[in-house]
Amino acid sequence: MSISEWVLTVIVVAGAATIVMLALRNRSLAARTFAAERRFDLLQHLVPSLTDAVTDSTAATCARILDRLGVFVPAQTMLCFYIDDGRLVLGARGGDGYARFLREGTSYEGVSIIEMARDSKTSIAVGPTRLDIPPDVEVLDASTQPWSDKVGPVAGSRDRVWALAVPLVRSRGRGLSPEVIGALYVERVLDAPFAADDLRAVLTVARLASDSLERARFADVVRRDSSVDGLTGLMTPIAFRKRLREEIAAKRDLALFFVDTDRFKLYNDTFGHAAGDRLLRALAALFGDIADKSGGFAGRNGGDEFCIALVDRTKDAAVEIAERVRANVDATGFGEAVKITVSIGVAHYPVDVPSDDRQPADRLLEVADGLMYEAKRSGRNRIEFLRFRAQPRYAGHPGEGPIPRR
Question: In CATH, which superfamily holds the domain spanning 53-224?
Fold first, then answer.
């Protein structure tokens, strides 16, 4: 081969190599461009869905998070947890795996990568073999760690599924470590390992989900503060009346107890306000327990007045329960110098308030309140209720039929 032929060959080979390198580079750039476009598309569709509903509850937010996550990262099982009093609580579940057997609202206890991710504040993946995780993806492969044999998926064996747990964190300000407020868990079948883009997508969702979950937790606190009486832990008057209207609007039988504490002012003056507060909390605990066991809800109406509502109870059954409440308080007494009792007015919908009443919930409260005052006028420490059924509204008249009083 002559020198000229050799030079020509070198040029051709070099040119071919250059073309191959450019093709590979272009392919790499195309892949990176596609990945960037996919991430942009993810953000474009994800951000509004997770930021628009600023007043959703924690559970509703968890469900929204999984709904969006499932669009971009299909999985056999998806779980969203939130932290409540230091416990992992299942906020929502998704997928057709074992998730359908889990109960939302219950605390999770077990040894898996979820707890490890929460405690270490690190995203962790586990599976049958090592995952190909790029350096820019902040996910720890559990198989590379000395403790890898101690943790695994939520259920099942690590040699059969791929699992990923990502902590949801919120910043606490400069110089303070972030706080874990929840966790995402994604599990896939054996033949569908997590690709790098899958991991990036889950991490992106987690960052946005953390903000949404934090807002939901705050909204829950606001709702709880506005619906729960600070002293007794029962429902506030506004929350109680709202629930009462909802139950009656659903056309459910409902019994209402209007309860007033006899001689509370004397008790307060004799033993002091601190003792009075303790008494109110003790009564609230008793009324709340009665409501829970009897299928209902209880609220503090203000001062030393309380309301108890029992759902799907007949009037006769409600009267019996009210008598047990009265007798229970009477037996307890709550003091020697001033014995505490209660006067209770019992009203029932639709027995005591016609179902065609324009404002049945308000009318039910009026009837129960009036009967409570009648019990006090009759000597206290007793219950009062209507002895016969209320009449329907008169046809052609805007007013209501008479409500018989004893």
Answer: GAF domain (3.30.450.40)
